[in-house]
Design a protein that fits this description.
The complex is a heterodimer of chains A (222) and B (294).
Chain A (H helix, E strand, L loop, with lengths): L1 H13 L18 H10 L4 H20 L5 H24 L7 E6 L7 H12 L3 E4 L6 H10 L3 E6 L6 H14 L4 E5 L5 H7 L3 E2 L3 H13 L1
Parallel strand pairs in A: 1-2, 1-3, 3-4, 4-5
Helix pairs in contact in A: 1-2, 1-3, 1-4, 2-4, 3-4, 4-5, 5-9
Chain B lengths: L3 H4 L6 E2 L5 H6 L11 H4 L1 H13 L4 E3 L7 H4 L8 H16 L4 E6 L13 H18 L3 E7 L2 H15 L2 E6 L2 E2 L5 E2 L6 H11 L3 E6 L3 H14 L5 E5 L5 E3 L2 E3 L4 H14 L3 E4 L5 H11 L3
Helix pairs in contact in B: 4-6, 6-7, 7-8, 8-9, 9-10, 10-11, 11-12
The chains are: A alpha/beta (222), B alpha/beta (294).
Chain lengths: 222, 294
């Protein structure tokens, strides 16, 4: 049983989604997270235990991404493997058997249509056990504010790829902070730096998804 | 047909243009607007930018068509107007460039990751083909496949551009410095891997654009040159990373600072030098002054 759970974590780290997935090459024909999660649940492993193994696998690949040992493709595949687990665990979240760590609202800021980075962060954070509300791309401030109103116990993440939309990001941070001073806002994206985040008045900046996870978990302990 | 490869003979250094996106924004393009639509709704503004780089002395200018692939235009519901918008982009730059300067038809990435399977290779190829053919029709001398991060998409774009037009194709990738000091694209491609892949796909000129300023671009050129000593190299570097000051975006690398580094870029093996985000006609004027005295 322990072996089965460990395997799920390993498949996440390697990005092995299911048996028919050709990725990674050296695991072709083997079960992926999809099959293994089903097997684990069927043999009586609790969803919490599976989730823990997932977190560990996701953290390992996230850390390797932070160290630039792997890049977007590897992390995307890991996130895809994680999603396959989550599909099986969703019922347990819905019935309240498993509780999310908290709510994380994320979106790419107004004027910016890029979703690769935002999706990666959303998937890694979901994999860490958070409820993720993904508002999509080109999200205006009003939409972020609405999402906060619907569940004020949340943390907000803003993404931008274009240098030209950083000004919109700054505006959105300020509007959130004006209306909801206690909401913590984290920003990220290729053109961002800690300095730019500070200038905007954001509470946090993460250069990679694992940094965003660390920020969220730190806020939870406060 | 005019050839950039010919123009680079005898070790001549050519100067390309600077940013378009940030310049369009200064003229009122709102974030969320489609920049390529401006080729038909605001042709005078697009022309003014093109002209400003010609006046600054650039040997070549780009076209306002970076996001002109049908896949990208679909975000605005404009996918069916790809032919019209790209042709208009090239026609404006052609008019500004006259017969003496080159026009490079800009082709940016689709924003989709092929390995995730959300788009097919055929759809990506067909889209780039439409875009490239329209850019040629509007008067482009060569095509610039730029800001790429994945070799599969770049190879498809180069192939589509060549097969649709027969023009020379230039291809540049965007590299970031990793924590270990190496340079990789977000998809993990090294400068050496880029050089091999895009040359094999048929690019005549290779290189890098965007990124983290002129200093890091010098490192990137050195790495490309280590892998490929001969193929001409084009760089379009940012004027540093943007900062926010008083709610406005500012780029810190001045025309003078950029010009000083351009000499080093040329020494390391860059053959065509221009700017990306945050660079202005002033930056290009400074580059021309510096590089034409070499």
């Amino acid at each position: 049983m322990e072996e089965l759970v460990g395997k799920i974590g390993e498949c996440i780290e390697r990005g092995k989604v299911n048996k028919s997935s050709p990725y990674p090459k050296d695991m072709q024909g083997q079960d992926g997270t999809d099959e293994l999660t089903r097997q684990a649940l069927d043999s009586g492993v609790g969803p919490e235990e599976i989730l823990q193994a997932c977190n560990a696998g996701m953290k390992r690949i996230g850390d390797r991404f932070s160290r630039n040992e792997v890049f977007v493709p590897e992390l995307l595949m890991a996130a895809k493997a994680m999603n396959a687990v989550m599909a099986h665990l969703k019922p347990y979240f819905q019935t309240g058997t498993v509780k999310a760590k908290g709510r994380f609202v994320i979106g790419t800021v107004a004027g910016d249509l890029h979703d690769i980075g935002k999706n990666l962060v959303a998937m890694v954070i979901e994999g860490n056990g958070w409820e993720v509300v993904d508002l999509g791309v080109d999200v205006k401030s009003a939409k972020f504010l609405d999402a906060i109103r619907q569940g004020p116990e949340c943390t907000v993440g803003l993404s931008a790829l274009l240098t030209t939309t950083m000004a919109n990001m700054s505006k959105t941070v300020q509007e959130i902070k004006t209306q909801f001073p206690s909401i913590r806002v984290i920003v990220g994206g290729a053109p961002l730096t800690q300095r730019a985040a500070d200038q905007m008045g954001a509470d946090g900046y993460a250069p990679n998804p694992q940094g965003a996870v660390a920020f969220l978990n730190a806020g939870r302990q406060k | 047909m005019r050839s950039i490869l010919n123009a680079l003979k005898d070790g001549k250094i050519l100067v390309s243009d600077g940013a378009w996106g940030t310049m369009l924004q200064e003229r009122g393009l709102e974030p969320g607007d489609c920049p390529e639509l401006w080729n038909v709704t605001h042709p005078d503004d697009v022309m003014a930018i093109a002209k400003s780089y010609v006046d600054a002395g650039a040997d070549m200018i780009l076209t306002n068509s970076f996001g002109g692939s049908p896949i990208k235009l679909a975000h605005y519901g404009l996918q069916d107007r790809a032919g019209e918008l790209n042709e208009a982009a090239a026609a404006i730059s052609r008019k500004a460039a006259g017969i003496d300067r080159f026009v490079l038809g800009s082709i940016g990435p689709t924003g989709e990751i092929l390995m995730m399977g959300q788009v097919t290779e055929e759809a990506v190829y067909d889209g780039f083909r439409i875009q490239a053919a329209a850019l040629k029709k509007g008067g482009a001398d060569a095509l610039l496949v730029e800001t790429m991060s994945a070799t599969d998409e770049a190879e498809i774009a180069i192939r589509a551009a060549k097969e649709a037009t027969g023009l020379e194709v230039i291809c540049t990738f965007t590299f970031d410095r990793t924590v270990t000091g190496k340079y990789r694209t977000m998809m993990g491609v090294s400068p050496a891997e880029m050089a091999r892949a895009v040359k094999e796909a048929g690019a005549s000129v290779i290189g890098a654009n965007c990124g983290n300023g002129f200093d890091q671009m010098i490192d990137v050129v050195k790495e490309i040159r280590k892998a490929d000593p001969h193929t001409p190299v084009l760089v379009h570097a940012n004027a540093g990373l943007p900062m926010i000051e008083d709610g406005k975006l500012v780029y810190k690398e001045t025309p003078q600072a950029v010009a000083a580094k351009a000499r080093e870029l040329a020494k390391c093996g860059a053959n065509i030098i221009g700017g990306c985000c945050g660079t202005t006609p002033e930056h290009i004027r400074a580059l021309v002054k510096e590089l034409k005295s070499l």
